[in-house]
Please model this.
Amino acid sequence: MRKPVPVEKAVGKKLLHDVTLITENFKGAIFRKGYVLKPNDVELLKKAGHYYVFIEECFSADTVFEDEAVRELAEYIAGPNVYVKNIEEGKAVLLAKCKGLLKINIEGVFKANLSSTYVIITRWENIGVEKNELIAIVDLIPLAISRNEIEEIKKRLKKFIPLVYIKPFKRKKVGLIVVGTEIYEGKIRDLASDKVEKKVRKYGGVLVEKTIVPDQEDIIKNTILKYIRKYDIVILTGGMSVDPTDKTPKAIAATGANVIAYGIPVKPTTMTMIAYLNSKPIIGISSGIIYFKEENALDILLPRIMADEKWTRKDIAKLGHGGIMSIFLRKKGKHKH
Model:
């Protein structure tokens, strides 16, 4: 690659890259790749801070320019249910072909980002994503790269492929048990069911049946056992704290379920339980979902469950890193929910 040329000498030549302008109110291209520069463009380029540009004569024959280079690597790292599009300023984006669980080979992304040419930027692993949602971006730091460099990077990443893919959600049937004597006796309204149902639908499931029970351990336990025979997932709301009247955690344990965790390292809705009975998940979610309806523990637990993945104690323990959700910061929660 040769040096860029002064803008005065590039008049009449095609640009090989987008030329951008950044102000407090604008960020974008003022000239697109392929644009033929005119004499009156020179002053505008200089005002935007561009005194030099790249044109064709700056590069050798084996050069691969950014649009082609980023698309090639993006298509190489993309796995099942992912598609690739080029966007402005020499980037390729990876998008979900379907609703599902986002899987990332984190070590592979790390290896790619050790290069001085490409960067791969992804969303958090194991989140639920919608169809056509952005999941990763591939960018090229230089304007162009040699064919040999591309092949070398692909060879380095081969054992990690695919780096990014989607596991589709299964349409799992859910039974919901609302726990609370005050709700059972009609003293207050059930405010949690609609929040749970929205989360279940969001992650591809269907809420089939709901019942309200009082804070009595035997009744809660027997209802769980009844539901676990009928449905793929059982979710309970309420009765999840350390209050003397709260019986839900004990009732879940009394079924003989394998309790993976009671109290998960996320905020909000820390006082949540995940257990398995006959290989079927039981989630006891705190009543905090009534207040923290936008983001809560169901957004973390359900995506993997709906994609037929099983939670382990180690998986839960790892949630502490990044476990403070943005909704918790916005609402400035200070207590256990």
In short: The mean pLDDT is 91.
